[in-house]
Amino acid sequence: MKVLLLRANPRKTGHTQKLADLFVRGLRETRAVVTDVDLTTSTITPCLGCFHCWLETPGQCVHSDDMSALLRQVLDAEVLVCATPIYYYAMSSYLKAFFERTLPLAQPGLGPSGRGLTGNRIRYPEQWRGKKLVTIVAGALHEPEAFRPANETFQLIADSLDLELSGQLTRPESYLLDYPLSKPKTLKTIEAAFVQAGRETGDTGRLSAETMKAASLPLAVDQEHFRDYSNIYWANATELGGEALNPDAVRRRVALDVRILMREMVRYLDPKATARVKAVLQFEFPDRKLAYHIRIESGRCELTKGTADNPDLVVRCKSEVWSALFTRVTDVRGALKSRQLVLKGDKSLFSRLDRFFPPPSA
């Protein structure tokens, strides 16, 4: 299988790059011959709409740039794979410029498309028969509606170019891919799906419904959680300023933000372990001027920002200490002994926190 991968993501430390790399890993496990092209480093002059490629020099664009070689690679490929971030609900400008410059592959005259629409006729039908298109789109937003315009555009492009649209991988909530603490098993499933998509493309040129579904599995609990987490992410990035241009710097800081850790902890309440528990646990982080309390009753819990009246247990420490305790970097006994961690009230509740809120496994 000859596969032409077109990367249209300008940021090489971003999520589109990571997902495309996983896809390529799967491709490399097959016998596919892979041509990996970075469109953001290619010189592609915008189409003039002059029809020079139809009327003056049929099949040849008036521009002399990298697109000439790309058109030959398109003709040679059996599967075209497009990887792009979502910018304003559409593919990036790099990929848009590429498709606009594919006009030399068409010829004058109109005819019915595979979907019964009207489209241009393909110039080289003998080299075109059986060609397939696979797409990879990634974006930060949560709702499927944000990805629909780009995916529908790809569907129309495939129809107009007489390509079989053989698979579409859609990855919403892309920035959450950096935080495995939340849903480690789900994240591994998503990453495995992109590798599997590469294998399927290399073997058959087509993606299975199961693989496409796994690639789009949600990571956020709901829209509210997604928005909260996104705002916390950008608050940290803003505080870091120019340092935030390094994704690892933001990732480390956000992953240990107590505002996220507290939300994550209550998500994994064990209803059996807390079935007979009725208690209010208060957590105070004086360095961030933050306080939360968790009300546990009959296998359920509720997290509320602020202090509570007469809590059964008060946990007080710096936010960085709690982050270290939460991630098992710091030993509880050592933190208590050094007074980095202070407990007031029913200390037995603290000793049972791991039973009440076991670490996430899904």
Fold and architecture overview:
Helix 1 packs across helix 7 and helix 7 (184-203) packs antiparallel against helix 8 (209-215). Helix 1 links the parallel strand 1 and strand 2 (33-38). This protein has 15 helices and twelve strands. The chain folds into three domains: 2-215, Flavodoxin domain (Rossmann fold); 220-255, no CATH class; 258-356, 2-Layer Sandwich (Nonspecific Lipid-transfer Protein, Chain A), CATH 3.30.1050.10. Strands 2-1-3-6-7 form a five-stranded parallel β-sheet, with helices on both faces. The chain is elongated, with a radius of gyration of 26 Å. By secondary structure, the protein is α/β, with parallel strands linked by helices.
Q: Give the quaternary arrangement of the chains.
A: single chain
Number of domains: 3
Instruction: Give, in order, the helices and strands.
Output: EHEHHEHEEHEHEHHHHHEEEEHHEHH
How large is the radius of gyration? Answer: 26 Å
| Major sheet description | 5 strands, parallel
- So, the CATH homologous superfamily of the largest domain? Flavodoxin domain
Based on the coordinates given, report the CATH architecture of the largest domain.
3-Layer(aba) Sandwich
Helix content: 25-40%
